[in-house]
Design goal:
Layout (H helix, E strand, L loop, with lengths): L3 E2 L14 E4 L43 E6 L16 H7 L7 E3 L5 E3 L4 E9 L2 E7 L13 H11 L17 E6 L5 E6 L17 H4 L2 H6 L12 E7 L4 E6 L12 E6 L5 H6 L5 E3 L3 H8 L4 E5 L4 E7 L10 H9 L3 H8 L33 H10 L3 E3 L2 E4 L2 E2 L1 E7 L2 H15 L4 E7 L4 H6 L6 E7 L8 H4 L14 H12 L3 H17 L3 E6 L3 E5 L2 E2 L15 E2 L3
Parallel strand pairs: 1-2, 3-12, 19-20, 19-21
Antiparallel strand pairs: 2-21, 4-5, 6-7, 7-9, 8-9, 10-11, 11-12, 13-23, 14-23, 15-21, 15-22, 16-17, 17-18, 24-25
Helix pairs in contact: 7-9, 13-14
């Protein structure tokens, strides 16, 4: 998983294959639709897993060369995306074109083997579960070392959670492995599970790293603070300029696969307000569109088009249930949830970006994904019930703010400092004031947002987003178990832990989805977090850019991206 401070106005070129937290900043619409907006086409809703809008072209017809420029929210704190501090969308955006993986996700959410790295990856036993990975004999790290079974073993050992010195982002699947052994030769890994794991494909789907970076906990935690370690993708990080806030990727001279069309990919760290102007001024080539104003500006910029495909990215409020937090009581968390009008937030955020803005009603699946259903009844908006609940808990109204034992009901809301996220907080603040809860707004800088605030529990409520993918169940132990590596609110109970374990052990997909929805209902009942809305996936790109745009669930093929010949 990758924590990242990001912006809807910033396009990240890859959908992180692990379930990744993404601190989204939405520039909210605070003005009504003016006459100048009437010529815009109606935004059309679509379903995740049914579409991908990338201007597909045969790569051989595209221009050879070119530099593709993307914005970043912040400079990566750690280039190891398996590390809790490197588990960000910004880090994932930079390293995804440089790292290997076993599977490629298609737009419909199905998978195909990535034969650049593996000639086989299949279930070869069920009792116990055994998965055999056969590595492409051409696959090498860019330091010249071959990719071998020992790389897979070292990653499993590091991410299993057994050695607490490894500060991992997720142990999903890895903790269930009994052994990783050599197969017929150094290029084959045989993974035997102690317990069944339904989403075994997610473990090595992408972002694999060499054992030189994962075998030692000190190297794992600190070895990539300044620069990435050895990689094995079509691109390699060639320039890191912290002064200019710029990172450049160039073609990997050791790459054995299809030659990329692009010469280079450049990432520039930009403030939220500077992203769309940078697109206008031809300083970047793509940007996520998170507001109607940005949509209007982008559509009226010569040479820019909007590509649309809903993304498995969603925004939420997470609560701090750790001892000592004012919202440690789940009954209080649920009362607060019932006092927040999610539809009002969605109407502000997505006005003009989708035709029927609706809240997201599931913690595990996004709308359109197989398995999605509305389990939100426990946290549904009901201010009258919220007031009664607060009264019953002893929080009595004194003037405009409730009190209990001489203490006011003041809740700290921590969020990335931008006008957009502030507006989300303001809607919630106005809602909660109506039930006697004072929401104190605490904007924070994007740099260090997770490591300095979220990761250490310095919040009562925190706003950020999750970037999902085609492996929704793989996130369950990472986020929702009592000891989950990304359970920032420290909320959980043994009953949910047991149901998550049961869900992940179920190899029948339909049964696993039913169990997952039981988990989701339980998550709602304990007031773990409050889902708000899903990203419509609107992306502004240069019209001559091919094989890139709004991928939906699909992975990005970096060798295929290029510019149309003039």
């Amino acid at each position: 998983m990758l924590p990242a401070v990001s912006i809807v106005g910033v396009t990240h070129p890859a959908m992180v294959r692990r379930f990744a937290p993404l601190a989204l900043v939405f520039a909210l619409i605070v003005t009504g639709c003016s006459d100048g907006y009437r010529d815009l086409p109606q935004a059309q809703a679509a379903q995740v897993g049914t579409t991908s809008d990338i201007n597909p072209r045969d790569p051989s017809t595209l221009r050879d060369g070119g530099n593709l420029r993307f914005p970043l929210t912040s400079f990566p704190e750690n280039f190891n995306e398996m590390n809790i501090d490197g588990n960000t969308a910004d880090t994932g955006s930079v390293v995804s074109p440089t790292l290997p993986g076993a599977f490629i996700t298609r737009a419909d959410g199905t998978f195909k083997l990535n034969t650049d790295y593996f000639t086989g990856a299949e279930l070869t036993g069920t009792n116990p579960q055994v998965v055999t990975y056969t590595i492409n004999p051409k696959a090498t790290w860019n330091d010249g070392a071959p990719i071998t079974w020992e790389d897979l073993k070292a990653e499993v050992d590091a991410c299993s959670g057994r050695d607490k010195r490894f500060l991992i982002a997720s142990r999903a699947g890895f903790e269930r492995v009994k052994s990783v052994t050599r197969g017929v030769d150094e290029r084959q890994a045989v993974i035997t599970f102690a317990e069944p794991y339904a989403e075994w494909r997610a473990m090595f789907a992408g972002g694999m790293q060499p054992r030189s970076m994962t075998a030692n906990p000190d190297v794992f935690n600190k070895g990539q603070l300044d620069a990435p370690g050895p990689s094995a993708g079509p691109f390699v990080v060639s320039t890191i300029d912290r002064g200019a806030q710029r990172i450049v990727l160039t073609r990997n001279p050791r790459w054995w696969g299809v030659k990329p069309r692009l010469d280079s990919i450049t990432f520039l760290v930009l403030d939220a307000a500077a992203v769309i102007p940078a697109l206008q001024n031809n300083a970047i080539d793509a940007a996520g569109v998170g507001t109607l104003d940005d949509m209007v500006t982008a559509q009226r910029t010569p040479g820019i088009v909007i590509r649309r495909a809903p993304a498995p990215t969603w925004y939420h409020f997470t609560f701090n249930g750790a001892p000592g937090s004012i919202v440690a009581d789940e009954r209080l968390r649920l009362a607060i949830c019932r006092g927040i009008n999610r539809q009002a937030i969605v109407d502000v955020v997505q006005h003009g970006l989708t035709d029927h803005p609706v809240p997201l009603n599931n913690h595990i699946y996004v709308a359109g994904q197989v398995g999605y259903q509305d389990n939100s009844a426990p946290g549904a908006y009901n201010p009258d019930l919220a007031r009664r609940d607060l009264d019953a808990l002893g929080w009595k109204l004194n003037g405009t703010v409730r009190e209990k034992d001489g203490k006011q009901l003041v809740v700290r809301d921590v969020f990335f400092d931008a006008q957009s996220s502030r507006q989300i907080a303001l809607v919630a603040q106005q809602n909660l004031a109506q039930i006697g809860v004072k929401l104190m707004l605490e904007p924070k800088p994007g740099t260090g947002f997770f490591s300095q605030y979220v990761g250490v529990g310095d919040f009562d409520i925190v706003q950020f987003g999750w970037v999902g993918n085609a492996f929704p169940l793989s996130a369950l132990p990472q986020i929702y178990t009592s000891d989950g590596d990304s359970n920032f609110g420290k909320i959980g109970n043994p009953t949910i832990d047991a149901k998550i374990d049961e869900t992940q052990s179920e190899l029948d997909q339909d049964k696993a989805r039913a169990l997952a929805n039981q988990v989701d209902t339980m998550i709602w009942q304990e007031g773990f977090s409050l889902p708000l809305f899903q990203s419509p996936g609107d992306t502004a790109v240069r019209s001559d850019l091919a094989n890139y745009g709004a991928p939906g669930l699909a992975d990005v093929d970096y060798t295929a991206i290029g510019f149309i010949r003039s």
